[in-house]
Design goal:
The protein contains 4 helices and 4 strands. By secondary structure, it is of the alpha+beta class. β2 (53-58) and β3 (61-69) form a beta hairpin.
Length: 102
């Protein structure tokens, strides 16, 4: 029972951290909009692996690294993450992270 409570608490903590880090980005239009004069457009996210953990890359740069180890996932999911999973929106990213990190 204590293990279940501990695991639930850990999952909740990861979720809250993700929502704290990712959610504010949704409110910042400059983060996804065309920057004035530069012509640069945010091209989405890639969920992959960094230092053996699930990570999010944005425009090729490390954006977020979770505490969830890739080795704890089924082999099929490990292979998908090693190849990189592209998502175009923050909504898709949140759903994917909930699937893998909870």
């Amino acid at each position: 029972m204590k293990k279940l409570i501990l695991i639930s608490g850990l999952i909740l903590a990861v979720y809250l951290i993700l929502m704290t880090v990712i959610a504010p980005q949704a409110d910042a239009p400059s983060a996804v909009a065309v920057k004035a004069g530069e012509g640069a457009v945010h091209s989405g996210y890639t969920v992959g692996v960094s230092e053996g953990r699930i990570a999010v890359f944005r425009d090729g740069e490390l954006y977020l690294r979770t505490e969830t180890t890739v080795s704890s996932l089924p082999r099929a999911d490990q292979l998908k993450l090693e190849e990189g999973i592209r998502v175009d929106s923050l909504k898709e990213l949140k759903k994917l992270m909930q699937d893998y990190c909870s």
